[in-house]
Write the structure tokens for this entry.
Amino acid sequence: MLAGALVAGMALVPVPSAQAEVYAGRPNFQLPYGCGDRYYNSTYAGHDDYDIDMGLPENTPVLASAEGIATQGHSDTGGYQVSIDHGNGWRTLYLHLQAGSYRFSNGALVRQGQHIADSGNTGTKTSGPHLHYEQRYNNAKQRARFDGVLSIIDQDTHSYGEYVTSRNCGTRVISGGAGYFYRVHNNGNMLGYDHSGWPNPVSQWIYWKGGQAIGSGWNQFTQILSDGWTVFGINEAGQLKWYRLADPVNGIWEPDQGKVVGTGWGQFAKVFHGSNGVIYGVTYSGALKWYRYINDGGSSYHWHPNSGTVISSGGWGQYHHLIADNGTIYAVDKNGAMWWYRYTDPLNGAGIWANSGQRKQVGSGWNFAAIGNGRLGIIYAVSYAGQLKWYEHLDPTNGAASWDPASGTVIGTGWV
């Protein structure tokens, strides 16, 4: 909510908005919040033409819009903030951050999509938790572009805005359980992998050993989830589309791939699979809903009648990563703590929560670009350096903080 700020100890005086859009060397900036997340981007009278206030709740992970050198800063009006120099005169600014939430060393190179800090409400010029965001060229403010699309924020004569879904996904890694992986690049191409050694920390792959091209156009989806050979995609319109590999060895899909099997899925901030056709959705208010898409044989399916049941009324929006298998849910918060939950009737959506609904902490240090489920306590994690790591939680049923000694073994590289 300001035109000038202190960045790295140097004062930035208010500068006029640019009069024409600049293209030279502009990175393909992405929204500074999680892949598939949707928040209100807005401005108000007197805000300055191209400044954007993004309605991120307090403690929401803030992500780098593009790769660059990141600098920490602070000012009275803007509070804690980050400036990223992307080269060729381009810079992005992130203001009102939570105190003590920096996730990088001052002056470090950060990658696009890397968690750099958490949103907050710091500084004197703020009316509540949000992220103030700017794109600048040679220090002149520019009308923002995200994933190539111009923001509607182009003047500050009145209050207005729009909800925008983030495509800050980098190379998306989707785990389908039992060693199946799908990687979707920003260009929409999908690669498939099969970790045949999934019960053990070994780099053993079959079928798609080096990653087989099995599809294109997957960048149409804001969220993608998988249960084995079945893959679901949620598009901007909130449609849930179904795909299934008929011939995994050769990467051939069922003839009716891409059919719409549900609508209204834009209500969810996050969606994740739970095996056996179970899908969980976290609403923007933090409630957790249960669904199950049941295979009747071949490509015939139906929804379980309890689909859409609210199985937890709130609190799930605080988690950065969520994975599940057979009723056990692992949730990773902004600090990298991993929490265990267990739902007692995952196949019918009519259960209760084990341990009287109380979560148990089963790990720490889970600050990863992506986390996936491998079934039976096996968990995969992709580091920001692109390492694929194998873990095994030895007590998924009762939630004891017990792990296989080989947990953390690197079984692959180049995954980002």
